[in-house]
Amino acid sequence: MEQFRLSPKELIWKCDPAQFEFSSTDELSCSEETIGQDRALTAIEFGLSIDSNGFNIFILGESGTGRSSTIKRVLERRSKDETVPDDWCYVHDFKEADRPNCIRLPAGLGKSFRDDMETLIGHVAEAIPKLFESKEYEQAKNSISQESQEKNKKLVQELEEKVNAEGFLLQRTVGGLVLVPTKDGQPLSQQEYSELEEEERKELEEKGGELQEELNDTLRQIVELEKKLRQALSQMERTFLNSALQHLFEDLQEKYKDHAKVVEHLDNCRKDILNRADEFRPSQGPQVAIAGMRQGRQEPSFDQYRVNLFIDNSALEGAPVVYEPNPTYFNLFGRIEHIIQMGNATTNFTMIKPGALHRANGGYLIVDCREVLINLFSYEALKRCLRKGEIKIEDMAEQYRLIATVSLKPEPIPLKCKLVMIGLPQFYYLLYQLDPDFRKYFKVKSDFNSLIKNTWENVQHYALFIATQCRKEGMLHFSPDGVAAVVECAARLADDKNRLSCRFMDLSDLIREASFYAQRQDAETVERSHVELAVESKEYRSNKLEQLVQEFIEDGRIMVDTAGEVVGQLNGLSVYLMGDYSFGKPSRITVRTFMGKGGVVNIEREAKLSGPIYDKGVLILSGFIGDRYAQDKPLTLAASICFEQSYSGVEGDSASSAELYGLLSSLANLPLRQGVAVTGSVNQRGQVQPIGGVNEKIEGFYAVCKAKGLTGQQGVLIPAQNKQNLMLKQEVIDAVAAGQFHIWAVQHIDEGLEILTGMPAGEQAEDGGWPEGTVNYLVNERLQQMVEGLKKFARPEEKNDKQ
Fold it and tell me: Among 403-417, 454-468, 472-486, which stretch is predicted with the lowest mean pLDDT?
């Protein structure tokens, strides 16, 4: 058994502080390099360099491995040397007011264009009232009006002279001009007219009819003159406006002559102002009071001439890098805002707001995969943008309204952006399998390791990482011994002497907590004792359930024996996973064998408390028993295996070797040492296979043995392949060094049988037999007895068949 017992040195890897060439991490420079992610960085560099469609990047890895910080750092460095993208503006479309136009301008020119238009609007708003109040305008207006009035007067005078000559009088009434017959220069009354002779009345009526035609013709001419007057006034006002605005617009058109859409927009603005001359003319009508409010003519608006500076890249020094932590639909693709006026929601093109995709256009957008998936519409809309190569702002709520409402439909903006999505490996593989479009748009996979090799170079990188964190957050610096303790914790997180954990989020928390305790103790640097105190404190904050289970074991409510020997009973080891904390505790496994044909019965499986991997491990036992002992006889065995006092689900095959030991013990009627706990899976050839959580399992059983009293005969049986995973607490190592606790590493079931029973397992002879005084001999004899015993109970026809 001595060859299987591990020495204290084999139970842990110690980082030598002497390898560090500093007395404090304060002597080290800051390092922003990512540790141990060469493959992932190569993929990122490829994805960022290739300019083909669909080569967006999906960064997958466990949380806390530096995915987000790495891609942000890489993009910030890269973007500084890239071209600043163009500005984007939205302007009013004078043909279709609900479809604003977008204008693309070089970076910085969009802001200048907006400011120039604001200045122009100010000048226009100031110049127009002055124009209508100017002496020149009044003179021109009076001249046109006077000319028209003279023509009207002349027409009326000519008509009046002719009417008088025919014995009529042209009289003005409320209803207009009326012809009245006269006699001796005086208008006839109705009575006088009726007293006239029939012929005289008839003559007057004929003349009156002819004169009425001439009157109507004159009135038509007067109306036409008034129409021409309005047109002349309007044309005069347009001419005056055009002359007043010409120099203002010409200056801007000259400045932006290289940008056709800007020049076109300026032309449209000037035409619209000229067409709205009537709106700008000062109102001379009286104001009307309604419900206590004075209602005058609404002042003309200049909003349609303004510029919505949608994207302003004037302050950038390279390509934009945008991280959107909350990728809702509106945060990604923009929105159209509304204001409430008199109970009505109104909007215009100046209320169009950009999203993260607009801000990242021409650069890089970083989003979290989980956040995108849980936000309604975001994922599908993102794929649609990538497919069409444009960003379209839509009101998604419009699809769910019962009544369609009029809203803006802004012109889409072309999209040229590298998308980086960060997520867990599960998300990547699920989307790759279930979404056929996913592989079209995320062709680059950057896979971050959760573990790296434990090399001298990587240990030095960890020291630089600690120095960077201390300097960045103003914490106490670490001594070489403190750095060594942190690196050892990284190996413990990896559960591997040859690997270091890349869970830098957890390591950063450890650095912060260790610095906190060092500051509390007024230390100058963080030492190993402070790191160990931080680890112990965190464990204490999290181990309430572990302590409760330990108390149940100590007071006997959970039955665990750590001394003596029992047939078909031993201690298996389980790991309890509690989110951020895990611990190991022993579980009693019992096996009972008897005559029958039922094979191995898994009680957990029958009670539906086991998982598929656990069931597989139990089924392997039948294969091992059959291969070793049933080559020359039928297997007439019935056995039941049970995890005692287990009332929840059991999963994993790490107890299969313990179950096999218990099965062989029951068959051979050999007692097993209760002070030795067992972990490890087994295959059908009897080889013990490695398992996970070996450190937690050993420490959990040690705690139970310590509470019940260390005897020097207790220990744990582990797979030999798990020796490299051992990173045990110092307390356990000290107990092993003192001979109070032992750890054995075995490769085969036969080696473990010898440790548990004190009897050699025995090697099979060429004739298939087993040497006496061995475990295998006793098992084989017991199985032979079962065969013979079963024959006695066989029915006559079964006996004849066997004969």
Answer: 403-417
DSSP 8-state assignment for residue 93: -
- 387-421 as b/e, with b when 16 or more CB fall inside 10 Å? eeeebbbbeeeeeeeeeeeeebbbeebebebbbbb
CA distance 355 to 333: 5
Instruction: For residue 70, give Cα distances in angstroms to 59, 66, 360.
Output: 10, 6, 18
What is the rounded distance in angstroms from the CA atom of residue 652 to the CA atom of residue 646? 14
SS3 label, residue 309: strand
How far is residue 697's CA from residue 692's CA, in Å, rounded to a whole number?
9
Dihedral pair phi/psi, residue 785, rounded to 5°: -65, -40
pLDDT at residue 404 greater than cutoff 70: no
Nearest partner of 54 among 443, 584, 550, 527, judged by Cα: 443
Q: Which residues contact 627 (CB under 8 A, 6 or more apart)?
A: 684, 685
How far is residue 296's CA from residue 654's CA, in Å, rounded to a whole number?
Answer: 88
Helices and strands (H, E) in the chain, number of each type: 27, 32
For 390, half-sphere exposure in the C-beta direction (CA atoms, 13 angstrom radius) is 10
Own/partner pairs, 227-232, CB within 8 angstroms, 24+ separation: 228/148, 229/144, 229/145, 229/148, 232/144, 232/148
Q: Give me 530's structure tokens.
A: 């402070």
Per-residue pLDDT tens over the stretch 386-402: 999 999 998 776 666 65
744 pLDDT above the threshold of 90? yes
